[in-house]
Write a structure and sequence with these properties.
The complex is a heterodimer.
Chain A: H1 7-25, H2 56-63, E1 67-72, E2 76-83, E3 86-95, H3 100-109, E4 113-119, E5 122-128, E6 133-142, E7 145-154, H4 161-174
Antiparallel strand pairs in A: 1-2, 2-3, 3-7, 4-5, 5-6, 6-7
Chain B: H1 5-28, H2 54-61, E1 66-71, E2 75-80, E3 92-99, H3 103-112, E4 116-122, E5 125-132, E6 135-142, E7 145-152, H4 162-177
Antiparallel strand pairs in B: 1-2, 2-3, 3-7, 4-5, 5-6, 6-7
The chains are: A alpha+beta, B alpha+beta.
Amino acid sequence: MRWRVNPATVVAVTAVVTVAGCSQTVSGTARRAQSAVPDPNRSYGYVDDRCGLLVDGSIQQAIGADHIVRPYSGAVCQYVLARGSAMVDVTFSWYETGSLDRERVLATERGATITEKVVERHQAFLARRDTTGAACSATAAAGTGVLSWWVQFRGQRNGDPCKDAEKLLTATLQSDL
Amino acid sequence: MAVPKSLSTCLAALTFAAALLVGCGPSDQPATPTTPAPPPGGGYRSADCNGVTDADVTKAVGSSMFTKAVVSDAGCFWQENTVLGTFGQGMGISTWWYRGSDMDTERTLEQQAGRTLTELSIDGNKGFKAYDANACSIYVAKGTDVITWSIQTMNPAMLPDLCTITGQLAELSQERVN
């Protein structure tokens, strides 16, 4: 008869095929654990007139600007810089209980072009999104949360603001060594 | 017609294997949610400028004295048009969204800046305002998130009450992203 087979044989054969099948279909990319930051206890909050551990002069120098003002300071710091006749906007964010994943999801949803990076041993990404100018943020998992530098060449469509954003992120992360 | 025993065994095995492989599949795939996850920590929903438009700002101010200069993932800045030299470049209205931050840290900073602090509540979320003659900032928290609205000007006489302006904008924000 058609189905008069030994059930034990069927089970044994399927079990072997199943094990082989499962082990072969495992896929995905190895990812560094989010918690594995080199500075788990570090705070990057606003203190001693510094945002992201940098004095205003360091930011002005990194951007190559003639003038800088910081109208807003706190978990977010805002700067307006003048470089010749051009305006450059910079913001720093320190979210002490934030996460890199949340920032990446938000940047992606808002249409940014994401480039994964490792900056000074910190997992990071660049997010290029032009809004009121050519703009880019460099964001890294750091300390207990996440920090980000954003640079905009106001009203411009050319240039590479990602380079300047990454430069500021590197400067902040280097200053904890 | 009878199927040879060896073939029927093989068919049965393949059928089981196929079924089980399908069963294995999903657990081996990286999770790809199709709908946005709810805000972590019970925070705010995502919207550029925390849901507020240029028209809202013009309405709250009562004139077109401010021009939008910044739209970033952290927030937005409308610069005051009557900028006096480079010092005036920081004057304007801003909103920021702290995605994972302690509002008490900001409270301490505002106290240190010598501003007057008043507790408030908007749309069921608690916060405070901090003000002096030339500035008024409003902070409102939800879960581990904070949304701020600030105005800073050298021309308070040309504007409505500063806290009325930021209060209106903070309320609009809370209505739209809470």
